[in-house]
Amino acid sequence: MRWSYKLPLRLRSLFCKNEAELDLSEELQFHLQNQTDEYVAKGMDPEEARHAAFRSLGGVEQVKEECREARKMNLVENFARDMRQGLRMLRRNPGFTVLTILCLTLGIGANAAVFSWVEGLLLRPYPLVSDQERLVALSGTVGAERDQTSWPDLLDMKRSCTLCETVFVSSITGATLSIGERAEVVTGSIASANYFGAIGVHPILGRAFEPGEDTGGNGHPVVVISYHLWQTRFQGDPKIIGKTQRLDNVVYTIIGVMPEGFYGTFVGRVIEFWVPVSMLETLNGGSFKLEDRGARWAEAYARLKPGVTRNQAQQEISTIAGRLAVEYPATNRGRGITVWPLWNTPFNHARELLPIFEIMVVVTMFVLLIVCANVGNLLLVRSFGRRHEMTVRVAMGASRGRLLRQLLTEGLLLSACGAAGGMLMAYWCRQALVLFFPDPGLYLPGQIDDRVIGLSAVLCLVVTLAVGLVPAFQTRHLALADTLKAEASSVMGARGRAWVRSSLVLLQVTLGFILLVAATLLMQSLQNIRTTSPGFSTTRVFDTSITLNAAGYDAPRAKTFQEELMQRIRALPGVEAAAYARTVPLGYGSFSSTPIAVDGYQPQPNESTDQLYNEVSPEYFATMGIPLVSGREFTRADDENAPRVAIVNQTMVARFWRGQNPIGQRLQVKGNWVRVVGLAKDSKYYSMDEAPRPFFYVPLRQYFAIEPDIHIRTTQPLQTIQTALLREVRELDPDLTLYEMITLQEQVDRSTSQQLAAVALVALFGGLALLLASIGLYGVMSYTVSQSTRELGLRMALGASTSNLLRLVLSRGLLLTTTGIAIGIALALLLTRLLGNLLYQVSPRDPLAFVAAFAVMTFASLAACFLPAWRATRTDPMRALRAK
Amino acid sequence: MAKPTDLVQGTLDLLILRTLALKPMHGWGIAQRIRQVSKEVLQVNQGALYPALHRLEQQGWIHAKWGESENNRRAKFYSLTPDGVKYLRQEQAQWRRLSSAIGLVLDMS
């Protein structure tokens, strides 16, 4: 009863301070008037009486202040008391407490971990960089295709864009860092001179780039290194500034060291060094110049002025791009520039992760709901078990509000522990995202910052309310007479309060089912991808390349080297075939592309005639295991002095020659007419789930690349062939080293890592959800049976057999499950569409997935219900009937 | 942090509660009543009375309601809550135990 007095009082003092103040004044006024009247009755002068009354009260303001103080004190006292009582309650049931805190830790921790990944990779991906909300990425567009931007275009952008504070470049690159004998490839970045200023991170030692270092082709061999590199490779040498370092066989001077914890601005990789854009040509082997407007290599960003939206910036930039297209039609016709938000930057790894993150967030929310339902049920069951105790307390004068407050406090204690545990779990899992991706070079850190902590706190509160209020519903209906009689709750079919428990279990079953469907669909998808042939051999074929660019080889020297090396490789034991190719399929590098023309083929007006191609050496198709349908491979005779030739794939034939035999036909590549000498089977080029696309091959000798990939088909294991190759390479030139060697299977795996990660995560959480739902179901069934011993005993005494009882109990459980599954099916049909791109050759409504999930869920439910059902059949009818 | 007035405060609370046990009263009435019944010995410190009333209200032992006083003015009437009745009984018993114990000590020879 106290509560119903205190609550309006508390609310009043919180929300209607003015009214409380007026009341106080009026109360004291009343007192003063009576006191004055008394004094007047005693014969005092009215004025004097009034003064005397004031004096006797002892200072009206002081009294008011003390009254206000008196109101505040108790909030803290009562809260402390509730806490203590709550703790005692939880200590008394250690098993229950541990179970619920564990569940909550999982639920809240999973959400916190996922959000920390989202925060660390998408929302605030660059540690130490200020104002990331105003950063956007810039990429070029031509038609529907996307590529990078060129330096002159960006300079124009910087000059003309009024809504951008600044435009800068930070393109990923790699270089061979040689220190003494060892050569190692290190990831770095080519950055514009304004880069460090634009991101607001400055070196802790030395200096950043100066504006003059943007120009003067190769004239500024300076480098800024990362803290990590400084510590590991240079042992934290305090005199590092001014020392030199060879990168790609060019001597650079170290001018600065970046602060600890700064990893550059490329999501997924750690950047160890930065060189100015003027050094571009040394790093790309001279294939294009900085001033080439048509050379699109730059990964650019812009910082927008405060208050500018992305749409506004996009409009202005599109206008500028349009102007450039008119001014420089040769390079810029039909090209635009697009503005991207940081979380969708097209040239780093974050973009691949976006669909996974979306799924993860939804999945962890589901798990949290299931956890809440579970814990709510547990609390409900326990509070129902305490209803005798509670009823007695109500009868003895405790208010229902008091009970409510106590339940909420217990809920708060549990969820606070859960949130603390969850934060710990999220902290440990900070780096765990990388576990789901096989690529060893990836760096995917989660970030626990104020927003993540804030989210966890909010989740904690929400859980408290959800979980604490559920048993509170019970106390509302605590009618004394009812609960003190045992019979009221002993009938199994009794509705009333049971609906809350049942609906919670229903929720768990539904959500668990949806997750199972999603997991099955993703697994099917992965299986499809895995069994799809990439069109080339994946076992026994290795891929690597040699640091020829780094060592400063020019084209003639590289040609000689490649020839000699190929002879040596073919002579190695176990090597069946070997070839060079400029680009490896399914890798990070892009294929060459060029507009082509074909005799007799008229392109549509809007059709782009750009086609992808690969520059390969003889024996390529034999090495890769790509069948040649007709014609021949390239030979050594197809060199730079011979007529130009090409090999095309089947889709290309279908598109450009309408299925006719292409052998002998002509095709124009880069202004020259080449003759088709072979037809290859289609294979996968960019990704495993791409649609068939036209593709052709040209001889490497006729379209030379200094540093192609090497493919080797051999029976030897990786270590052996790697050592052998390195030896041969070093014999030819001791300054060279190999890049990472992997099998083509590994290459395929890395390209499908996204799907793998999705499957792993959803399967993990799906399994978790299934477990929790089963536990929930088990708990509820167990409890229901234990409450209905009387009824069961009655039935047994009246002749019901064991199997009858079993059927009775199981049917109740199965009813719950089937309803849950039915709702789950309906929802899943709607929601699985959201899996979208992650599904490869699997319909979101694939019946197999639904059937599988149905089977698993039903089986789990049967298992969960079985034990309680079996226990039901063991009731001793005599004891059950006698028990009250 | 026990102030010297704490003992007095506890006693005042007891007096207020006991007074209200008979019938609901406003602050002025409580002070008058205590004076009367104690034959003018106990003069309630008026500055302490209202903070005490507000504190007792916050703790839930008494409940306030606005009403009309004997002289037709608007006044805030306090009454005991069921919890307050219980609390009063407890405190009365406690007080008797305390005072008899003090008496024993004072009377010892």
Structural features, described:
The complex is a heterodimer of chains A (884) and B (109). In chain A, a hairpin with a 2-residue loop joins strand 3 and strand 4 (182-191). Chain A is α+β, with helices and mostly antiparallel strands. Chain B is of the alpha+beta class. Chain B has four helices and three strands, in the order H-E-H-H-E-E-H. Chain B has helices at residues 6-22, 27-37, 46-59, 82-107, and strands at residues 25-26, 62-68, 74-80. In chain B, helix 1 (6-22) crosses helix 2 (27-37) and helix 1 packs across helix 4 (82-107). The termini of chain B are far apart. Classes of the chains: A alpha+beta (884), B alpha+beta (109).
Short description:
By secondary structure, chain A is of the alpha+beta class. The model of chain A is unreliable at 480-484 and 486-496 (pLDDT under 50).
Search tags:
heterodimer, A: 884 residues, alpha+beta, 4 domains, six-stranded mixed barrel, six-stranded mixed beta barrel, 27 helices, B: 109 residues, Arc Repressor Mutant, subunit A, three-stranded antiparallel sheet, 4 helices, 15% strand, globular, disordered N terminus
Tell me, rounded to a whole number, the average pLDDT of chain B. Answer: 85
Report the uncertain regions of chain B.
1-6
- Largest interface: chains, residues each: A-B, 30 and 27 residues
Total strands of chain A: 22
Residues in β-strands, percent of chain B = 5-15%
The general outline of chain B is globular
Shape of chain A: globular
Strand order of the biggest β-sheet of chain A: 3-4-9-6-8-7
Structural class of chain A: alpha+beta
> What is the assigned CATH homologous superfamily of chain B?
Winged helix-like DNA-binding domain superfamily/Winged helix DNA-binding domain
Question: Please, what is the oligomeric state?
Answer: heterodimer
- Total domains of chain A: 4
The structural domain count of chain B equals 1
Helix content of chain A: 40-55%
Strands across the major sheet of chain B, in which order?
A: 1-3-2
